[in-house]
Design brief:
Layout: H1 2-6, H2 10-13, H3 26-35, E1 42-45, E2 48-52, H4 58-70
Antiparallel strand pairs: 1-2
């Protein structure tokens, strides 16, 4: 999943802050609870879980990021 995000075009990456969490650490497990992650792989955008247990293709992921950016900081629709 992280590779899918890192492979996005540079102009899309410039719009986001990519954070990868190692689920073996207590801090990451606590963070996963705040975003509602139950299954891996998952992607949260603006603190909201938008993909869980699936890896979206580049076009779908790009569209979702653009949708979230256009909402002027109001975040994304959750899954």
């Amino acid at each position: 999943m992280a590779k899918s995000v890192r492979d996005l075009p540079e102009d899309i990456q410039a719009l986001i802050d990519i954070r990868e969490w190692d689920m073996k650490t207590p801090r990451a497990r606590r963070h996963s609870k705040t975003t509602g992650v139950r299954k891996l792989p998952s992607i949260a955008i603006e603190g909201k879980l938008v993909y869980e247990s699936l890896i979206p293709d580049q076009n779908e992921l790009t569209q979702k990021i653009m949708e979230c950016v256009k909402r002027d900081g109001r975040g994304c629709d959750e899954i």
